[in-house]
Design a protein that fits this description.
- With about 280 residues, the chain is α/β, with parallel strands linked by helices.
- The longest helix is centred in the N-terminal third of the chain and has 36 residues, at about 20-55.
- The termini are far apart.
- Strands 1, 2, 3, 4, 5, 6 and 7 form a seven-stranded mixed β-sheet that branches.
- It has a domain at about 100-235: Collagenase (Catalytic Domain) (3-Layer(aba) Sandwich).
- Helix 2 crosses helix 5.
- The protein contains five helices and seven strands.
Length: about 280
């Protein structure tokens, strides 16, 4: 029998502190994190370099900055008022009454037509905004036109500023025209013209505005007035429209209607043919 040996005293092993045990693990973790970080940094640099070297086919997108929050204390901006267009000025009213005193267009004009010329003056009633010189020029051009009365081969005209005359062209206010025409029992009603007592009385309103048929051609209406009223001094009476679509005769009272004719200011056409129609009783 083997004798039993009594156990000797156990030697105690000292335990290391807990943090000392965790330190190697922490160091290992930090080393791993550092390696991962280095790898990530290397990959980021590689990616950046590759991206910069590779041409991009897609347009770059602009990064919009965030809108600033409105300041509740700020005073709201009020838009400036837009300028309002000024109303166009109303046309100057045409005077209807004048003194019955006239200014004569100065100077003498050339003769037009063959034969002994009829002498005439051009006068403008005082107080109206109309140039006697300009009006005289228009009247001269009408009476000298080859479609006018000189086309008959007998009539001739010459404008003068003094001495005896065969007739006088007077442009005057409606009231003055009415009074002059009423002396010969003609009612012009503030609208019409007339030839009386050696005077061609032209209503200022008609001279400036024409009629409904000549509203867009005032020069033609003025030619019609002169040809019509001077035609009376030459012995021509009123006529009417010969047929539908024909030019209205100059001796027709066109202001009262065209009756199927078309507007026309001249007693003769371009071929020297007389434009007329049936006489009016």
């Amino acid at each position: 029998m083997t004798p039993h040996k009594a156990p000797g005293p156990r030697s105690r092993r000292r335990r290391a502190p807990r943090n000392r045990r965790l330190l190697p693990a922490a160091l290992a973790t930090l080393a791993a994190v550092g390696a991962i970080g280095a790898l990530a940094a290397w990959q980021s640099q590689e990616t950046t370099a590759t991206t910069a070297a590779r041409p991009s086919n897609s347009p770059s997108r602009a990064v919009s900055s965030p809108k600033p929050e409105p300041d509740p204390k700020a005073t709201p901006s009020v838009p400036s008022p837009r300028p309002t267009a000024s109303p166009s000025p109303s046309p100057t009213p045409i005077p209807t009454r004048g003194p019955g005193v006239y200014d004569t267009a100065p100077g003498d004009g050339p003769k037009s037509g063959t034969g002994t010329p009829m002498r005439y003056k051009v006068q403008i009633e005082q107080g109206i905004d109309l140039s006697p010189e300009d009006a005289a020029k228009e009247v001269e051009q009408v009476l000298a036109d080859p479609r006018g009365w000189t086309a008959d081969g007998q009539s001739a005209f010459r404008r003068v500023s003094s001495g005896a005359t065969d007739f006088v062209v007077r442009i005057a206010t409606a009231n003055t025209v009415d009074e002059a025409c009423a002396q010969y029992s003609l009612d012009t009603g503030g609208e019409l013209n007339c030839s009386v007592g050696g005077n061609v009385m032209v209503n200022l309103k008609r001279w400036l505005t024409g009629t409904q048929y000549y509203a867009d051609d005032i020069p033609s209406y003025r030619a019609l007035v002169i040809n019509h009223e001077v035609g009376h001094f030459l012995g021509h009476n009123h006529v009417t429209c010969p047929r539908s679509g024909a030019p209205a005769p100059a001796m027709m009272q066109q202001i009262k209607g065209l009756h199927g004719c078309v507007p026309n200011a001249w007693p003769y056409d371009d071929e020297g043919r007389r434009i007329t129609g049936p006489s009016v009783p």
